[in-house]
Design goal:
The chain is of the alpha/beta class. The chain contains 16 helices and 22 strands. The strands form 7 sheets. It has a 7-stranded mixed beta sheet, sandwiched between helices. A 5-stranded mixed beta sheet has the order 3-2-1-5-13, with helices on both faces. The chain is globular and about 70 Å long. The relative contact order is 0.12. The mean pLDDT is 94. The chain binds adenosine-5'-diphosphate (ADP).
């Protein structure tokens, strides 16, 4: 019986593989970290071969350890770090350079030029994005302009490019499939999210040769099979690849947010919030419009926003201030005081993201009195993450023109009961943390299962879903939230040019 699904979760710091039962239970996992290269301040690179090899090894080990017969695996699904750009040779599969990682700021100047030259509105209208170095398009341009020999090879039509989904797919299929799913395409600044096609004018503007680009495809369906001769994967040859999505969209899918109005927040180092809007909605609050997924000819759109510093503020308490020894310790301390004692912590270490968009804001702790203890600071830190998430969600509600009815959560810091309860109090809606915390990998597995015909529709998946832990609104936080807005104003526009 084909009772298993294999998810490959290619992240920013490690490559993981998880074998799930079709009911969503984790059977086995394997994970390999890989090297982060920082060649200059603000630059971040990965070796594409290391990404590939760690991912292949993780997949092989995961299946080998499980003891499951490969014949019982219905399909493979991919989830990946988004926006990271790879260019490789069509014939040999050799990358022409390191991958330029999503975090890399090397194309910031060109993006400023795009803004000054008046391209912002076109970019937003076609791609749903703001012109930023984050996205892949300008990274391909950088490789074309700066890596020796690339221009000549490009002229001879010898090169291909793609985000990590595309790089993995090409390698897994032995070079047969050069495709990229919509949820990854939409993060390049080259893709028209309404026409679901590469945009010639944007490719020209960003000087990306169109013959480099992968074929845009839906997130579920026939994406090829694992070829013979793929290193480490001899035993998996012939397995069909049936689903793929960028990590955040995969998590939204894995959380079962299939209906407009449903949303999830991932509490990691930063927060990533995605709201299913059904149709494409243009933001007036600096949020991004992206493709959630394309399934059976139907496209679901999302609004996306992020809090730059969330879990990182907990790490700061641990690593820089030393007032906690480990992240979990923050919860006991926060709960040891009846309230925040008037203390507010705005973790604007690197400025503020949506909806505030203030790159000159800086971190602030305000309201300190002689009676303030480290417990108050711990509590203010967790509350601060919840306030920033609430600000973001309020902006999403305005853009979408409808209030949310609940929030699903995941990520390392979502285990904090205190913070989840506070979040429910602030938003006035239930917050739910699922039993399967591996939402990203599970989302990829679900897309693969749909593509393999295990379920007819996403909704059919929900019937097996076990309820998660629910936090219902209990306390009125109106006063505290108003005070937070005041603290936020003090943090804004702090640095000067
Ligand atoms: P990322 O994928 O961004 O690396 P994770 O989803 O692994 O992040 O989450 C890591 C974050 O979760 C860290 O910033 C850490 O401080 C926080 N964290 C881990 N355990 C706890 C806990 N028990 N309570 C609160 N925060 C936690």
């Amino acid at each position: 019986m084909k009772n298993y699904l294999l998810a490959l979760d290619q992240g920013t710091t490690s490559s993981r593989a998880i074998l799930f039962t079709t009911g969503g239970e984790v059977v086995s996992t394997a994970q390999y970290p890989f090297t982060q290269h920082y060649p200059q301040p603000g630059w971040v690179e990965h070796d594409p071969m290391e990404i590939l090899n760690t991912q292949l090894k993780a997949a092989a080990d995961c299946v080998a350890q499980s003891g499951v017969d490969v014949k019982d695996i219905a399909a493979v699904g991919l989830a990946n770090q988004r926006e990271t750009a790879v260019v490789w040779e069509r014939k040999t599969g050799k990358p022409v350079s390191n991958a330029i990682v999503w975090q890399c700021r090397r194309t910031a100047d060109f993006c400023s030029w795009l803004q000054v030259a008046g391209h912002t509105d076109t970019i937003r209208a076609k791609t749903g994005l703001v012109a930023d170095a984050y996205f892949s398009g300008t990274k391909y341009r950088w490789i074309l302009q700066n890596v020796p020999g690339v221009r000549e090879k490009a002229l001879r039509g010898e090169l291909l490019c793609g985000t990590v989904d595309s790089w993995l797919l090409w390698n897994l299929t032995g070079g047969k499939v050069h495709a990229s799913d919509y949820s990854n395409c939409c993060r390049t600044m080259l893709f028209d999210i309404h026409k679901l096609a590469w945009d010639e004018d944007l490719c020209r503007l960003m000087e990306v040769p169109m013959d480099w680009l992968p074929q845009p495809v839906e997130n579920s369906g026939d994406l090829g099979v694992i070829a013979n001769g793929v290193p480490y994967l001899e035993a998996l040859a012939g397995l069909p690849i049936r689903g793929a999505a960028g990590d955040q969209q995969a998590a939204l899918f894995g959380q079962g947010c299939f209906k407009p109005g449903q949303l999830k927040n991932t509490y990691g180092t930063g927060c990533f919030t995605l709201l299913n809007t059904g149709k494409a909605v243009t933001s007036r609050n600096g949020l991004l419009t992206c493709v959630g997924w394309g399934l059976k000819g139907e496209t679901t759109y999302v609004l996306e926003g992020s809090v730059f510093n969330a879990g990182s503020s907990i790490q700061w308490l641990r690593d820089e201030l030393g007032i906690i020894k480990s992240a979990p310790e923050i919860n006991g301390l926060a709960e040891s005081v009846p309230d925040n004692g008037g203390v507010y912590l705005v973790s604007a270490f690197t400025g503020l993201g949506s909806p505030h968009w203030d790159m000159f804001a800086r971190g602030t702790i305000i309201g300190i009195t002689r009676g303030t203890t480290k417990a108050h600071i711990c509590r203010a830190t967790l509350e601060g993450i919840a306030y920033q998430t609430a600000d973001l969600i309020r902006a999403m509600e305005k853009d979408a023109g409808q209030p949310i009815s609940g929030l699903r959560v995941d990520g390392g810091a979502s285990v904090s009961d205190f913070m989840m309860q506070y979040q429910a109090d602030l938003l006035g809606v239930p917050v739910e943390r699922p039993q399967v915390v591996e939402t990203t990998a599970w989302g990829a597995a679900c897309l693969a299962g749909l593509g393999a015909g295990l379920w007819d529709s996403p909704e059919a998946l929900l019937k097996d879903q076990k309820p998660g832990k629910l936090y219902l609104p209990q306390n009125d936080r109106t006063k505290e939230y108003a005070k937070w807005q005041k603290a936020l104003e003090r943090a804004k526009a702090w640095e000067e040019l």
